Amino acid sequence: MKAFVLKEPGIAGWADVAEPILTPYGAILKPVAVAPCSSDVHTVFGGGSRKAPNLVLGHECVARVLEAGEYVKDFSQGEIVAVPAITPDWRARGIQEHNFKHASAPFSGHQLGRSQPGVFAETFLIPDADTTLAKIPSEVSIKQALMCVDVVTTGFTGAENGNIKFGDTVVVMGIGPIGLMAVAGAAMKGAARILAVGSRPVCVDRAYELGATEVISYKDGDVVEQVMKRTGGLGADCVIVCGGGDEVFAQAVDMVRYGVGTVSNINYFGGTGNLPFPKFSGGRGMAGKTIRTELAEGGRVRIERLLEMVRFKRIRPEILVTHELKGFAKIEEALCLMRDKPEDLIKVMVTIE
Ligand SMILES: [Zn+2]
User: Fold this and answer.
1) Contacts of 98 (CB under 8 A, 6+ apart)
2) Are 147 and 321 spatial neighbours (Cβ–Cβ below 8 Å)?
3) Alpha carbon of 70 to ligand 1 centroid (Å)
4) How close is the Cα of 225 to the center of ligand 1, in Å?
5) For residue 148, what pLDDT band results from cuts at 50, 70 and 90?
6) Given this chain, do its domains 2-152+296-351 and 162-293 carry the same CATH topology?
7) For labelling, which of 21, 56, 232, 272 has a CA lying 20 to 30 Å from the CA of 50?
8) How far is the CA of 69 from the centre of ligand 1 (A)?
């Protein structure tokens, strides 16, 4: 069958790959709609860990069940489901220690398009259907469901780990799709003031729409100084890091409050080496600032809960989709759009069926 694969570091393309083989608890699925994401761009162009030859890319997908294994209870042939980007191995020992994302190895929860063939293929396997696939309520569109499988859950993870309380001041660094959902999440967690850091007009518009009270641009000078000035020198209760290079980590520590502040990182820092930790604003190791680093929450229940939020109109993730392409062959063009980030792009989806 045809699939869009990582051929070698820096080169992605089409290849003929083996069809997946059904497992007793698994399901074979056919993509209905997919979205490439910045992580796919990192996998192809950003180096990272060694991958299997001709690894099938992609982890954001709404799909139709073609075939369900003999022990699958809740899903049947023909059903359209949301496929979480993060698919923990629920049978791994570490799950009983609540270590969902790294249960059997670092990043074992991130399997699709990484340690197991991804969704940019004519068909793909989910090895444990009942614990992984999410039912889509009839009121929720395919576009909305597609945004929940990675973008919403990742952005919300950033807000959840930020220890946000009613009345807090929150800074969101980076307002691509993930950062925009972190803005929405922070607003729902009770932030009074949300300072979003970014400059592309399309993203700035959406940031205000989703709950930002102010937008700060790198173009207007040092971001830390701007935040400190606007907060009377105190800094923010929470800084959610959603984008940027290595320098943003130190900036986040600089601008979070002593004693009570939390830096919640969901940004991908490519390459190896160290991230700089500012000694002074870090209180020379005694500032009482909390730093959380997390991969997105995944699995069936998580995504079904987010789909409930769409169903009852708490969130409108569809406003992130600025580009829509049609046809399996358009996956390549869509990935290039995510890499090149034209001025008017937030998120692209490809409808296949
Ligand atoms: Zn993604």
Assistant:
1) none
2) yes
3) 30
4) 32
5) very high
6) no
7) 21
8) 27
d(CA 195, CA 15): 44
Would you state the pLDDT for residue 47?
65
Ligand 1: centre distance to CA 58 (Å)? 8
Strands (E), 18-59: 27-34, 55-56
The tokens for 345 are 């792009």
Cα of 96 from ligand 1 centre, angstroms: 26
Instruction: Report CA(230)–ligand 1 centroid distance (Å).
Output: 33
Match 């993730």 to its residue by tokens. 317
Q: Where in the chain are the domains?
A: 2-152+296-351, 162-293
Rounded distance from Cα 39 to ligand 1 centre (Å): 5
Write the CA distances from 268 to 10, 62, 65, 292, integer angstroms: 17, 24, 32, 13
Centre of ligand 1 from the C-alpha of residue 40, in Å? 7
If you measure from the C-alpha of residue 214 to the centroid of ligand 1, how many angstroms do you get, rounded to a whole number?
27
> Which band of pLDDT confidence, cut at 50, 70 and 90, is reported for residue 160?
very high
Give 223: exposed, middle or buried? Use CB within 10 Å, 0-12, 13-18, 19+.
buried
Question: Span 162-293: which CATH code?
Answer: 3.40.50.720
Tens digit of each residue's pLDDT (9 = 90 or more) over 296-334 = 999 999 999 999 999 999 999 999 999 999 999 999 999
